[in-house]
Design goal:
The protein is of the alpha/beta class and about 200 residues long. The protein is built from three helices and eight strands; from the N terminus they run βββββαββααβ. Helix 1 runs antiparallel to helix 2. It starts with 20 loop residues before the first strand and ends in a 9-residue tail after the last strand. Keywords: Cell adhesion, Disulfide bond, Glycoprotein, Integrin, Membrane, Transmembrane.
């Protein structure tokens, strides 16, 4: 191979010099849908096939339009140690107000709740401590905000030996656990609520 700038007439006429290009293969119209079996369309185009040469720039336009009532899944992951009691009370007092504010953005908002304290082993905590847990899913995602408030109020607090908590263990569980019931097309938000640092061991 040689650069086209140095090719002379003595070269073979059968040269190959492909051009960079792109082709839009799917460009469905914007779509809002409350039917969970029908996916909303918020980006155009959806699929593009690109053929590019090294160092060559390709430009194409992408459009975005927020779908009406696009699903939002919000999961509250709470530190359940004793020092967080006041924070939990504030959440239950404000939950309905938060829910109503989000309903102005979308009528398809689901809330869920879970808690964590500590790794269930010494030297992090006493395994005989009442209500001690690494992670508990108290409520799978639901649009019943009254039940959300009721469940969060009923959560019992506990304690551990040191200041750091096992929050990252719980965070991983929330992301992968099927019991949370994340919806496939929803925006997924995890509110990680704690007043402490996290353990990095294990």
């Amino acid at each position: 191979c040689e650069s086209s700038t140095i090719v002379t007439k003595s070269w073979c006429k059968a040269s190959v010099n492909p051009k960079s290009d792109f082709k839009i293969t799917k460009d469905a119209a914007f779509l809002s849908s409350k039917n969970p079996k029908i996916n909303a369309v918020q980006f155009k185009p959806q699929n593009i096939t690109i053929k590019a040469r090294p160092g060559k720039k390709i430009q194409f336009k992408v459009s975005y339009k927020p779908a009406i009532d696009y699903p939002i899944d919000i999961y509250y992951l709470m530190d359940n140690s004793y020092t967080m009691k006041d924070h939990k009370d504030k959440l239950t007092n404000q939950a309905t107000k938060i829910y109503n504010a989000l309903k102005e953005l979308s009528n398809n908002v689901y809330f869920g709740a879970g808690s964590f304290v500590e790794k269930m082993a010494l030297p992090y905590a006493d395994e005989t401590q009442h209500n001690l847990n690494t992670f508990i899913n108290h409520l799978s995602l639901t649009d019943n905000i009254a039940n959300f408030v009721k469940v969060v109020k009923a959560v019992q607090h506990t304690g551990n030996y040191d200041t750091p908590e096992g929050g990252f263990d719980a965070l991983m569980q929330v992301m992968v656990c099927d019991e949370i019931k994340w919806r496939k097309e929803a925006r997924r938000l995890i509110i990680y609520s704690t007043d402490s640092t996290y353990h990095s061991a294990g």
